[in-house]
Amino acid sequence: MTALSELEKTSAQDPAWWRQAVVYQVYPRSFADSNGDGIGDLPGITGKVPYLRGLGVDAVWLSPFYPSALADGGYDVDDYRDVDPRIGTLEQFDELRAALHGAGIRLIVDIVPNHTSNRHVWFREALDSPPGSRARERYIFRPGRGEHGELPPSDWTSTFGGPAWEPVGDGEWYLHLFAPEQPDLNWADDEVRQEFLTTLKFWADRGVDGFRIDVAHALAKDLTEPLASQADLEADIWGGAHPLEDRDEVHDIYREWRRLFNRYDPPRTAVAEAWVPAHRRSRYASPDGLGQAFNFDLLEAGWDAAAFTGIIDKNLALARESGASSTWVLSNHDVVRHATRYALPDGTDLAAWLTGDGADPRPDEARGLRRARAATLLALALPGSAYLYQGEELGLPEVADLPADVLQDPTFLRSGGEQKGRDGCRVPLPWTSHGPTLGFGDQLAHLPVPADFGRFAVEHQETDDESTLSFYRRALAERRRLQTEESLEWLASPHPTVVAFRRPGGWTSVTNFGSSPAPMPAGSVIVSSAPVEGREVPAEATVWLLQDHPHDD
Ligand code: NOJ
Ligand code: CA
After folding, report:
1. Please, are residues 45 and 39 in contact by the beta-carbon 8 Å criterion?
2. Ligand 1, atom 6, residue with closest C-alpha
3. Which tens digit of pLDDT belongs to each residue from 474-484?
4. 100 — phi, psi (to 5°)?
5. Which ligand has the minimum distance to the alpha carbon of residue 45?
6. pTM, whole model, 2 decimals?
């Protein structure tokens, strides 16, 4: 690497790089395996930096790569300031960072502050210490109910199913909002707060540009007795009154983090994963807090023009309110891939569909991919940042028929096999069309790569101008060229199934949600999600146009 990388030369002048960045999420175990042990690793990612550069992303977000027993895909962290030996070393992390920066790509890491793993040194100490001890104060221990503490402190259930309390054998129970291997931390404890500041500083000093904050809405909790019932928790008590989620005090934590982030040049960025109602999202995205928050509204919406328009309007207004830019997400490691969601009838119960191995109903793959490309191109035209999930640029579908004996998601085990969980979107990427793991690694992959993934291999798509990969590359290159200020002007639509808007400079995006072609506004076509014939926007397609005279139409 030369003395000063491209990024290092320009970043100091661009503290706002994140506002309209394209961020590519890497799920490290499933991206690229450099040593053939079946587990994707940091050198594997480093080897693919030219691919990421060719794709045209601005930043990479790494899902957790820390030492972990993988009770929840790495979101059960044993040590926040190290790399899982199966994934690499700190030196290899530095090499990856340098390679990304050398290619002009920023690096975001995942911070998991709501819970540690049960193998974290603090939790081991807590288990070895008696009730009432200092070690237990870092977590949420409570005496059980009943004569001998044999009943949990409350009837709360965990996100992955089953009770949210686990007994430790001495009358006390600890809280875990997720798996039992993920004990919740006590954020009222000063040592917990200091420890995370140390961790954030550790990564920021190592040149990390930003952080994705897991479960950002749940750190602050009100555990005053008597504890609410599960029925109370499920009642509509948002807006700061819920004992476990979205409490106002959580922002004291993020204000302290922001002061740390702002000590760096450029300031470190952060994006909150906060599952809160839209009107509460701005608090997480405020400039004196994390600065940005995920908006999962498009990911939750069906294929519907009115829904998309409403979501865009609402979120751009919210972004103006917070001073942040909006975020747009169609896929991530927690949800059924969007090429498959759109291949199913609107309103399909996705969990039930997965339980049936994806057989009923059968996805209409061509339709799913057509709509996925159209939705992606629409999202990429919006003001704000776009978060892409590895493999969506290949048009990968969900793998719905993974056999039970390979499933890893705690959802599967905790639901007694009733829910399959999220492994189907975490299958390793196909780089080539041959070999047992299609170029992911050698003979092994920690989740099996279906043979028919060869159809989606990077190797094929790279040389095919019509492929989804070529389409993403064109879209990202044009976006980079056209992106200016964060504003959008709606264009009068000829039909309720057509969504059209213009960005400054005459950049126009038109999406036809309908099933027959729609008239195309003036301008020359620069990218389209489907082949264009004549002056029509194809059915279920998005077209970007450049209007030479933006005010002529
Ligand atoms: C959100 C993460 O995205 C998900 O994968 C994880 O299971 C939970 N948080 C718990 O950490
Ligand atoms: Ca490996």
Report:
1. no
2. 75
3. 999 999 999 99
4. -65, -50
5. 2
6. 0.97
